[in-house]
Amino acid sequence: MTQKILILINDAPYGTEKAYNALRLAMQLGKDHPDTEIRVFLMADAAFCALAGQNTPNGYYNIERMLKAVLAKGGKVKICGGCSEARGIKNLPLIEGTEMSTMAELTQWVVDSDKVITF
Q1: Which listed residue, 5, 34, 86, 117, has the most CB atoms within 10 A of its CB?
Q2: Which is nearest to 41 in space by CA: 54, 53, 23, 24?
């Protein structure tokens, strides 16, 4: 039976390390437990994590690359549409493979997940 893990991120991509640590966990789960379904939901300022074209200095983590790594291992990444709209970023280019979502869809993910981890 496939285990479903939902990782809920609420913080901006840079400034704190919450998104970074959440995605480190998601990447490690994908590597060590390939049969596990990894779901990442970006809320509040974490909606900025899904913006395409992030450019960070050499040697500094890059949230876009980390999200692409999660997606490459079959993970799912959804962004709160209302949070994106409130921040004026709903129509900006997103990382390929991420999807705008709704509170109803998050609710379904929560009910359907075996574990929910928040950052």
Answers
A1: 5
A2: 23
Domain that holds residue 81: 4-118
Predicted TM-score (pTM) of the model is 0.96
Other beta carbons within 10 angstroms of residue 32's beta carbon come to 8
pLDDT band at 1 (very low <50, low <70, confident <90, very high): confident
DSSP category for residue 24:
H
Helices (DSSP H) in 1-119: which residue ranges? 18-32, 63-72, 81-86, 103-112
Q: Which amino acid, residue 35? A: D
Burial class (CB within 10 angstroms; exposed 0-12, middle 13-18, buried 19+) of 54: middle
How far is it, in rounded angstroms, from Cα 27 to Cα 40? 11
Domain with residue 107: its CATH number is 3.40.1260.10
What is the count of structural domains for the chain?
A: 1
